[in-house]
Every structure is written in structure tokens, then in C-alpha cells.
Design goal:
Number of strands: 17
Radius of gyration: 21 Å
Strand content: 15-25%
Helix content: 25-40%
CATH topology of the largest domain: Alkaline Phosphatase, subunit A
Distance between the termini: 34 Å
């Protein structure tokens, strides 16, 4: 099995890796949930205030072409943590509690970045939302994480009660817990607790994956934060005001985490990534800037997200790039920054040269996006997109024809050129078919759970 072989190889090199570990940077990945491309001040929003995230972005490199692997949660998270297209690790759609509504199963033999970093001498932790499995062998502690303090499930039905389908998915490692408080505050506080603990062991670098569930629905900000927005923006709709308050509360939490990083003396040797798992949900009040559509969609508003990387002394503060990257490209980039060998066979590519101000060729010729979903809207089928250069071919419904857009001339995807550019259309549709065949090698449903229908 690929995962077993890789781990064995990594363990053989463990003494050397441990010796080098103390000189490596700490790694902190902050992933927001459904944060839209236009829902930060630094990305053009004029009706909300995000000073802490804006400050974080200003201290490093801002990306204007950061793409999520998928327009919904689980697939992007699977891609980010494995460096593979989500279909290659069994997660083409959202992992859910009930099998009849589940569209993914993280393959047991896939290797996570936590596996690799742990074998290289890092202490590995996740705080917040997991959403890649509910039971062994697909819980965080089974997949390379030394420490898990957070929520196993997909979404919370209530930010204060922390339940999904009346099931308590809150965990401290494998122990079920019942904490009190707003989930954003809990994840912030638990991250700060972790940073303070790691500051006491500076000889061992850490990888912290902080995955907030905000601003995912239900849009439930603390009441005092909502009142601030109502007073400041009296003309704002209630739907928008609630989302703005939830984002501003999230911004405050991220500011606290960054303060903890500085106060513990860890900041100067920590590489920080900030991004979102997919675009904002429009009917929840999200703003994806000028981009078309939002969460669930393979138009730009569902795929393009805020993104920034900060590394004091290594990445120029205040820099910006239009270099295109995918969520999964963080896997080899972080390993390269940590001087850890990158496993063979990944779909992802390192963009560390770009972060260090060096010129770099495009990471790939074709950029693929895919999502599988149920219900009558999707019928268990997929929606897909492929980008090559300035051209984008997509099918946003499994029951509608393919569409073709030129993103350079038409970034808002208004002018369908499917019939006006037949050569490009045929080339991209052929590339998409080949990619679907590539995906088809990997099953994505847990064995023995689904019965055939007569």
C-alpha cells in the first residue's frame, strides 16, 4: 500500500529528520469555511471590517488567483491535506453522516501532510472542523495528527450547541467533549492553548491546521457583534448584517491567534497560510466580488477564494501575485519550505519559488475542478470545470450543456463561446474526459455500506 510504504521510508530516515527539525519553520494553516472572494476589506468589501486578517495578508504575499479544489467543503479539505485531486483520494463530494447522502470516503491508503510532517519530526495538530470521516480509520488521530481538538462533522446546526443531526461530534483527540461557548471562540482559544504549549518545546516544530467553521451556515454571530454591525450599517439587510457580523467575529478570533503567535515568540519562525475552502454562499448574504455565482458552483465565484502566505524574513511583506495556485498545492509548498522530501506521485506542485520572489512557470497546463452531489438537482452526478490559460470549459449542471468562457476577456463569465470557438471547446472537452478516466481508478464510497437497488 502506498501509504504504508511511504511511512516506512519516512521512519527509516527519522533520526536525521529529528536532528534537522529544530531548524525548520513552524507551519500554521488557517482555513475559513465558505469565505467569499469579496468578503474581506483587503479584497474589496466596503461594508465590513476585517483589520486583523487584512494585517495578516499585508505581512506577506496576497494571491488574486487562489483557487479552491472544489466549490464545497470535504473535497477541498481532502485535496489540501493529501496534495491530490480529491477524486484520487475518494472524496469527490461532501462526506456526511448518513450513507444515502454521503458522496465520499477518504481512502485509507492516502497519505496526509500530517503523516509526512510527523515522520519528519513535527508535532501535528488540527483545531476546528475535520469533515473527512467520523470513525476509524478516518479520524484526525488516525491520519497523522498528534492532537485533535474540534468537530468531526460537516456543519454545526448551532454554533453554541455544537451538534449535527443531534449527534455530538466535538472531540479532544478521541474523547467526546461538551464545551460551552461559540464555536469560533472555542477554536480560537484552543489554538492559543496549543501555541502556548508548543512554545514550551521549541526544539520540536509544529504543524497546526486551524480549520474554522465560520462563516458557514447557520449564520449565527454573537449578538453583541451583530448589534455593532446594525449600528454601523443601519441600511444593511438583516441577512447581510448577520454574515458580516460572523465574519468580523471570525476576524477578531484570527487576530487573537496571531497575537498568541507573537506573544509566545513563535511568530518569526512560523509560516502562516490563510485561505478558504470555497466561495461564499450567496443566499446567506455572501459577496464574491465581481465573480459569477458562489458556493456549490464551478463558476469563478464558487472556486476563487482569498489567499495569502506569510513567512517573516522569507516572503516580502506587502507583496501580491496573480500566479495561479490550487488548495492542494499547499501540500508540496509547505514541505518544500520545511525542507522535507516531497512524496512522489502527487497531483500538486510547489509554489515556494513564487513566495520567495522568484519567477516560476505555471504549475500545470490544465486545472481541473469537480464535485459530485445528490438530490434532484444533481442526481448523484458531477459538475466539472477545466481551465487552460485564459480558457475555461465548465458544466455547472449535469443536465445542461458544456459552456466555454475566456476568463481574460470575460472574467465574469457572461459570454458563452462554446459555439464560437469549436477548436478550443473540443480540446478542453477531450482533456476533461481523460481526467475523468484518471479519476475512475479510485472508489469513493465506503465498502459494504451501500446496497444495490433492485
Amino acid at each position: 500500500m502506498l501509504r504504508v510504504a511511504l511511512l516506512f521510508a519516512l521512519l527509516l530516515s527519522l533520526p536525521t529528520e529529528m536532528t534537522r527539525a529544530a531548524d525548520r519553520p513552524n507551519l500554521l494553516v488557517i482555513l475559513c469555511d465558505d469565505l467569499g472572494y469579496g468578503d474581506l476589506s483587503s479584497y474589496g468589501a466596503d461594508d465590513l471590517q476585517s483589520p486583523h486578517i487584512d494585517k495578516l495578508i499585508s505581512e506577506g504575499m496576497k494571491f488574486t488567483n487562489f483557487y479552491a479544489n472544489c466549490p464545497v467543503c470535504s473535497p477541498t479539505r481532502a485535496a489540501l491535506l493529501t496534495g491530490q485531486y480529491q477524486d484520487r483520494v475518494g472524496v469527490p463530494g461532501v462526506i456526511r453522516t448518513h450513507s444515502e447522502n454521503n458522496w465520499g470516503y477518504l481512502t485509507p491508503d492516502s497519505t496526509t501532510i500530517a503523516d509526512v510532517l510527523k515522520a519528519a519530526g513535527y508535532h501535528t495538530a488540527i483545531v476546528g472542523k475535520w469533515h473527512l470521516g467520523y470513525e476509524k480509520p478516518n479520524r484526525p488521530n488516525d491520519r497523522g495528527f498528534d492532537h485533535f481538538h474540534g468537530f468531526l462533522g460537516d456543519m454545526m446546526d448551532d454554533y453554541y450547541h455544537h451538534r449535527r443531526h443531534d449527534i455530538n461530534y466535538m472531540r479532544l483527540n478521541e474523547e467526546t467533549i461538551t464545551p460551552e461557548g461559540h464555536a469560533t471562540d472555542l477554536f480560537t482559544n484552543w489554538s492559543c492553548d496549543y501555541l502556548k504549549e508548543r512554545a514550551q518545546q521549541p526544539e520540536k516544530p509544529f504543524f497546526l491546521y486551524l480549520a474554522y467553521n465560520a462563516p458557514h451556515t447557520p449564520i449565527q454571530p454573537p449578538e453583541d457583534w451583530l448589534e455593532k454591525v446594525r449600528e454601523r450599517e443601519p441600511e444593511m439587510t438583516e441577512t447581510r448584517a448577520k454574515l458580516v457580523a460572523l465574519i468580523e467575529h471570525l476576524d477578531h478570533g484570527i487576530g487573537q491567534v496571531m497575537d498568541c503567535l507573537e506573544q509566545t515568540g513563535l511568530k518569526e519562525n512560523t509560516l502562516v497560510v490563510f485561505t478558504s475552502d470555497n466561495g461564499g454562499q450567496l443566499n446567506a448574504g455572501a459577496n464574491n466580488g465581481p465573480l459569477r455565482d458562489g458556493k456549490q458552483s464551478v463558476y469563478e465565484g464558487g472556486l476563487k477564494v482569498p489567499g495569502a502566505v506569510v513567512w517573516p524574513g522569507k516572503i516580502e511583506a506587502g507583496s501580491s501575485t496573480d500566479f495561479r495556485v490550487l488548495s492542494m498545492d499547499l501540500f508540496p509548498t509547505l514541505l518544500a519550505a520545511a525542507e522535507v522530501d516531497i512524496p512522489d506521485g502527487l497531483d500538486s506542485r510547489s509554489f515556494l519559488p513564487t513566495l520567495q520572489g522568484e519567477s516560476q512557470s505555471d504549475l500545470r497546463n490544465h486545472w481541473f475542478f469537480r464535485r459530485r452531489e445528490g438530490g434532484q438537482r444533481y442526481g448523484g452526478k458531477t459538475i466539472e470545470a477545466v481551465i487552460r490559460g485564459e480558457w475555461k470549459l465548465l458544466q455547472n449542471s449535469p443536465f445542461e450543456p458544456l459552456e466555454l468562457y475566456n476568463l481574460k476577456q470575460d472574467p465574469e463569465e457572461k459570454n458563452n463561446l462554446a459555439k464560437k470557438a469549436p477548436r478550443i471547446f473540443n480540446e478542453l472537452s477531450a482533456a476533461l474526459r481523460r481526467q475523468i478516466q484518471y479519476y475512475g481508478e479510485v472508489p469513493w464510497q465506503k465498502p459494504g455500506v451501500i446496497e444495490s437497488v433492485d
